Amino acid sequence: MAGKIEGHGGDLALSTLRAFGVTEMFTLSGGHVFPLYDAAHKAGFPIYDVRHEQSAVFAAEAVAKLRRRPGLAVLTAGPGVTNGVSGLTSSFFNASPVVVLGGRAPQFRWGAGSLQEMDHLPLVRAVTKHASTIFATDDVPAELAGAVTAALTAHRGPVFLDMPLEVVFGSGEAEVPEPSVPVVEPDGDDVGKAAAMIAGAQRPVIIAGSDVYGGDAVAELREAAEALGVPVFTNGMGRGALPPEHPLAFAKARRAAMGGADVIVVVGTPLDFRLGFGDFGDTQVVHIVDAPSQRAAHVTPAVSPAGDLRLILGQIAGYGGDRVDHTDWIAELRRTEDAARARDAEAMLADTDPIKPARVYGELRKVLAPDAVTIGDGGDFVSYAGKFLEPSTPGSWLDPGPYGCLGTGLGYAMGARVTYPDRQVCVLMGDGAAGFSLMDVESLARQRLPVVIVIGNNGIWGLEKHPMQAMYGYDVAADLQPGLRYDRVAAALGGAGEIVDKPGDLAGALERAFDAGVPYVVNVITDPADQYPRSANLA
Ligand SMILES: Cc1ncc(C[n+]2csc(CCOP(=O)(O)OP(=O)(O)O)c2C)c(N)n1
Ligand SMILES: [Mg+2]
User: Are the C-beta atoms of residues 86 and 405 closer than 8 Å to each other?
Assistant: First the structure.
């Protein structure tokens, strides 16, 4: 036990969360949650506030993703909570251990029509690992600790708790439980079979996703890949798990690898639309997941070890049997990779009017530090970021994940800035996406949280306009005002920025942005005719 504490519900909640390593809260004010602020204020515990609750939850999610520990958002009763639902849902899809504490109308007159009286639980239950109301102040530490433990237990995910007014304002005392997170032991036979299949394959590939980082198994992934000589592709938070210069790190030869492989090992990511739903024809699939709940129901892999990814990958790394030499396979993929890389390098130099997104990334690559945190929020402009930016530090790329929710941008940026005060934080944002969170330039500026926001301003909802044109020959509801001065919006909100419409001006603008010391929008006017070449569809 971490010790007995006394105080109001806010004090008890905060003490419990601190025991789990929480070091800040993200919020938007509401009287229902004042005691949580009071607890933080008395403890000198940082509070960051935003202009829309979804940014608070996204900020908490960024912390949870980057640090692999609970990220905390505090939302006021009713509309505060409902505004946070998209953030909770993203966290659910991304297995992010987010804790949302909600205010709640008083229980003692429930049903009489108090302000913002609403039962949140039916709304949030479908998108959380745990959702409950704490009805007694003395119960706060135990209930909260149980929920946070659930959030941190693989397969990780968000939890929601609310406290009626009299519970959070009322006094109580209780022990703060000692944090401990259970480890899911994998089945040894499954792991042995997987290792033997990989070692015995002629042309294996590994595709590693977010849970590898979330499960702190990056080192073990690398050891396993090196021990068995397997090329590695990544997605989501798996990006950067192997630095781009690593001989087994691949990004661009994915089609050749999936097409040519005889064993595909997917680890720490679902067999979803990003991976052709796991349908690789006759190729054998090994699906390594962090919990049995993550095994695919729509396809049947040859084997699907489930459990702690550190243990599974560590055991695969230690495989003692014979292994096939993959040198020729790796060399073949490397040739494909190098050819694609040369094409990318050329695209990133494009000196066109209007500017192509590729050139924006060509210039950005020159100024980004190896440990920069890059955040994607948008459509085509972000697809290009995924193609052209190559994170070289694990846990430094934040995309919205498979839920694909626009609007993560400045919330994620706030979470990243708070987590890494000394690293570059750069948001790659579509002009459409900008509309969801740009107001939080004010929150960032006021709280002295400088970040760089590069807007790909094509004047359209590009990822919708082009497909609608292709499908119908016309488009509706896909235009935005071209040439809008989002940089001036940033300046009006306490940040700064500039507009760029010539490729040659990008380098200087980016340099000024990273030196600015305030939230800075580089508003790049990009070519609306440019369309990301994509093969995936909605289903
Ligand atoms: C909250 C939300 N609303 C709508 C969508 C559908 N959507 C996906 S991409 C996209 C277009 C994004 O446009 P923009 O941010 O300008 O990027 P661009 O494709 O133009 O580069 C839209 C509307 C979504 N994913 N999330
Ligand atoms: Mg756009």
Answer: yes
Residue pair 223/319 in contact by the 8 Å Cβ criterion: no
pTM more than 0.85 = yes
Question: Does 463 sit in the ligand 1 pocket, CB within 6 Å?
Answer: yes
Q: Is the pLDDT of residue 436 over 80?
A: yes
| pLDDT given at position 537 | 58
Q: What is the CB neighbour count within 10 angstroms for residue 397?
A: 26
| Helix, strand, or coil (residue 43) | helix
pLDDT digits (tens, 9 = 90+) for 441-481: 999 999 999 999 999 999 999 999 999 999 999 999 999 99
E strand map for 66-146: 71-75, 98-104, 130-133
The CB of 10 under 6 Å from ligand 1? The reply is no
Output the pLDDT for position 536: 61
Report in angstroms the alpha-carbon separations of 76 from 52, 91, 108, 119, 362.
11, 19, 18, 13, 43
CA of 482 to the centre of ligand 2 (A): 9
- The four Cα atoms 154, 155, 156, 162 give a dihedral, to 10 degrees, of -110
What pLDDT score does 1 carry? Answer: 46
Cβ neighbors of 364 (< 8 A, separation 6 or more) are 389, 426, 454, 510
Provide mean pLDDT across the span 187-199: 97
For the record, the structure tokens of 520 come out as: 């800075």
DSSP 275-324: GGGG--TTSEEEEEBSSGGGS-SSS--SB--BS-HHHHHHHHHT--S---
User: Residue written as tokens 């494909």?
Assistant: 336
